[in-house]
Amino acid sequence: MSAHNHSIDQDQLVKEIQERRPEALNYLYDNYSGAIYGSILRIVQEEDIAKEVLQDAFMKFWDKIDQYDSSKGRFFTWMVNVTRNLAIDKLRSKELKKAQKTDDIGDYVNTRSEGATHQNIDGIGMQEAMQGLRDEERFVLEMVYFKGYTQSEIEKEFGIPLGTIKTRLRMALVTMRKILDVE
Amino acid sequence: MSSEEYISSGILESYVLDQLSGAERSEVEKKAREHPEVREEIVRIELSIEALAFGTAVAPPSDARDKIVSAVSSPETPVVSISRSKSESLSLKYAAAASVLIALASTITAFDYWSKWKSAEGRLSDLIAQNQQFADNYNTVNLQLNDIQDAVAIMNNSAFSRIVMNGTDNSPGALATIYWNENTQDVYLSIQELKELSENQQYQLWAIIDGKPVDAGVFDAGSSSLLVQMKSIGTGAAAFAVTIEPKGGSENPSLETMQVLGNV
Prior knowledge:
In chain A, 69% of the residues lie in helices and 0% in strands.
């Protein structure tokens, strides 16, 4: 794929993690911590909490690797969903949720250009790509993907029917796919 | 449902983002096994999520790496062993084994109930959400129906005079109708055709009484109600007219903007 080139593929990485090879942990951290940390930070929004969640997430990637089922999807998909659930649980336990959800996502999308330079990152400005979406699609994508809302929460809080949320989410990702040139 | 329709419903995106109930998840997994195009679409979605995550990556603080790598790779806390006499340790072993078995069995049972409860809870909240949606739709329709019933009652009431206001030279296509009950002084307006105005303008209705214009209230063209109740006016109106005024209305009509006019 064009977005990032890893020198070992995800299946190989999973195998090495299952074999408990220390270099696999280093590799995992060096290549994926940025993408994972970004997902966490956008949900919990505080660096100290995000660091805790990052550690919990890597613990889980390592210790619960047997829960990953390759027939159901890619390793990264599993990691990012594990991560999102941890971040949301943390956020709920800190009861910070209501106060922070209303912040503008733009702030967090922007932070990538400052911090993430040592990792292998796609060159396209993400915020620019997000601007290519229609308002209602961007809204649903931000809520679900960047902010960790569930679809029924969006339905309840904003009165958008579940079916509509699903199709908008799809249109948003289809458009992002074109912009990001994912095969 | 064809694969194409299935894909375009957006359920696969929700699957990849882990936003489905257990039952829905199994359904997607079944579809993916049966239809390669569904499987391929899932991979495409996964790759775009991945591109999105890498495109929005944020490097963690540099002090996090060593801490996390050493925390993750440190072996689990070793179990402390206590030496005892042999017979005591044997019976303890049986007791321990039994308690482990009991704990295990109850954990499994608890987990089984927990997952059943979870999945029931998920289905219940879906149903509650659906139910809420139906109730909302019903209320909306009900309000619309009440509105229409009220309107029909007024239109059919012989105590109301019906005055058709036709478009003036300013707007030949415009059309609106007044229902006026001279006894109760109620005035209702029904808009058939009036153009949209800019934000800082509103329509104003005037009744002509004794040759003088009397304000009967302002309104917007976009009202969803069939009939709009206007201000009460006195008796003896000879005509009704609508002009365009600055938002909030004027004291005296801007006659040059008159849109519709009708004699009683």
